[in-house]
Amino acid sequence: MVNGTDDVEADKRRAEVFDALGHPTRIIILKALSEGPQGFADLKKKLGIDSSGHLQHHLNKLNDLVKTDEYGKYTLSDQGKDALLSVETVEKATKSGEKQNGKAPIPKKSIILKTTAVALVLLLIMTSALAAIEYNKTQSLQNALDERDSKTLSLQSAIDERDSQISQLNDVISGRDALITQLDTVANWDQSLYNMKPPAASQYLATSEENQTKIFLVSTAAGYQYGSSLPYPFNNTPWSSGSGPFSSRRVLELTDNRSVAVSFWGWSLGGGNYQMLFRGGDPYLMIGVTVRNDYTAVDTKNGTDGNAPIGRLPTGSYVSIINLAVTLYSWNGSVIPSSEAADTRSSAAQPVTATGGYRFLLGSNETKQAIFYISPSSLDIDHYEIHVSSLSAQW
Fold first, then answer.
1. In this structure, what are the phi and psi dihedrals at residue 273, rounded to the nearest 5 degrees?
2. Would the pLDDT of 139 be above 80?
3. Is the pTM of this model over 0.85?
């Protein structure tokens, strides 16, 4: 049901149409445009109107009945075509009445026909006005729908941006958690190393059967390495490209405008003056040992059946074949199981040993370093001991 406001608007539209058709010049303009689009100058010339302002005034009055095409020429709108058809219908009915005037009484049927024609004209005008109103309503509704879709799109963009920020924050939190785990591991290894007691240096080592040898323990020291095959931040390659700038440290931002710098290569501690080899993988214990071979040529006479601890090479030097081993003990005196650390690498300059030992040659009165890379089953280490697991002569 149309409310009072819509009635007023409809009446206003009808009045505008009647006003537009209320001047003969404007009807002539409609008829001229019914023949095809006309430019302003052409229309002015065709109608014989001298004043441009006069023509513009009538065009403005025609309002929705006349429009301009893509070339800027004036043409009839759909409502203008309907209005012109109504005018022509009225004119035909008027001319028919004039022909019969004075010749004979106008039949009642003719009067009804004229009345019907006028009613049709009015109906067409009203229909055009109502159609224009409905079109405006539809256009307003479409604009509202477009605005709603635009707001929905903006809201979705805001949601996507929020989800991206949440994802980034989760990555930061995961990185911080990984760093906390690593720092906690480092703290445990630091504490274990601080509590660990090395054996006394400047002593002769014994075999596993507790037989004393002349392999002299010059010095020993313990340390640890926390390698680089770890999660954040160490899984990032230190090179930005194949030959780009290198950075061995990562600066991690903390709360309250604080930061901490950690090495890309992981953490390492202790080792005394031993040049420990860098090794990847999980944390592991390093024990450096420096020994001296105090066996001399005299000791070759002490053995029987070729089992002397030192033998003579063709070069004339005396050399022993030595295996060392390390044993870890807990606070209650029990042995802590341990194994060789993963990714063991050896060096000719510094023979690498594992728990069970690594055989190497050592000449008479010579010293050499050996480094154990060990993965203990527990960090509850009270002390460690070094002993000779095997000793034989090089003949």
1. -95, 20
2. yes
3. no
